[in-house]
Amino acid sequence: MENKAGVIVVAAGKGSRMGTTESKQYLRLQNKPILIHTLEVFEHSSIIDEIVMVTGKDDVQRCEDWIKEYGLTKVKKVVVGGYDRQESVANGLQFIHSDWIMVHDGVRPFITEEQIMNCYHSAVTSGASVLAVPVKDTIKQVDQQKHIVNTPDRSQLWAIQTPQTFRSADLQQAHQQAQDENFRGTDDSMLIERMGVTVAVVEGSYENIKITTPDDLDYASYVLQRRGEKIE
């Protein structure tokens, strides 16, 4: 699919830090599930040709119902996730066919078209890319006794976000290699880095938060209000 990309939207987590019985991706903003806000951004993106959504097995039906309700025609498949995020992405990879693949958190609804495009074009130029923002706080490395052992140079630290964009063949190989070696990474770029592929950082926005706590939900409501959208 020349000049197009597919995206795997990962929404299989339970999100215990939110402190609710409902999974965080299905909590509502503007009377609409957070996940749907996220999917709509990619649905309307000119660079995205297909969407594969990964969710828990008990949530497949309601996600499919919402996809029909909101007219999300680019969503080609709702896939059952694995026991962790890495396995969930691997499951999604089996059903996506684009030459370039983005991986995005289902609870990051404030990604913009400009950021999607920048991330894609950087990956095409460099081989892979991740959206990120410079770290604002000083970061300390601590030991098991919670004693500081190192203070990294903050000017070299970035907080990594999504989407992350890769060649399909590279991402497939990275996941297969990780599985063969029983390696667990905290994000997909970590798996790609192990293969020696250069990953470029694309500056994003501090608004592109991952909604995981009640405070995040309050901030998300504020962002929508500031954008002129009514919260119900």
Automatic annotation (TrEMBL):
UniProt entry tagged with the keyword Nucleus: no
Site-annotated residues for Transition state stabilizer: R17, K24
InterPro entries hit by this protein: IspD, IspD/TarI, IspD/TarI_cytidylyltransf_bact, ISPD_synthase_CS, Nucleotide-diphossugar_trans
Annotated GO biological process: isopentenyl diphosphate biosynthetic process, methylerythritol 4-phosphate pathway
Keywords, sorted A to Z: Isoprene biosynthesis, Nucleotidyltransferase, Transferase
Sites marked Positions MEP for the nucleophilic attack: R154, K210
EC number, UniProt record: 2.7.7.60
Record flagged with keyword Transferase: yes
Pfam families: IspD
Gene3D superfamilies: Spore Coat Polysaccharide Biosynthesis Protein SpsA, Chain A
MF (Gene Ontology): 2-C-methyl-D-erythritol 4-phosphate cytidylyltransferase activity
Domain of life per record: Bacteria
Enzyme class: transferase
Reactions performed catalytically: 2-C-methyl-D-erythritol 4-phosphate + CTP + H(+) = 4-CDP-2-C-methyl-D-erythritol + diphosphate
Function statement: Catalyzes the formation of 4-diphosphocytidyl-2-C-methyl-D-erythritol from CTP and 2-C-methyl-D-erythritol 4-phosphate (MEP).
Family: Belongs to the IspD/TarI cytidylyltransferase family. IspD subfamily.
Protein name: 2-C-methyl-D-erythritol 4-phosphate cytidylyltransferase
Gene coding for it: ispD
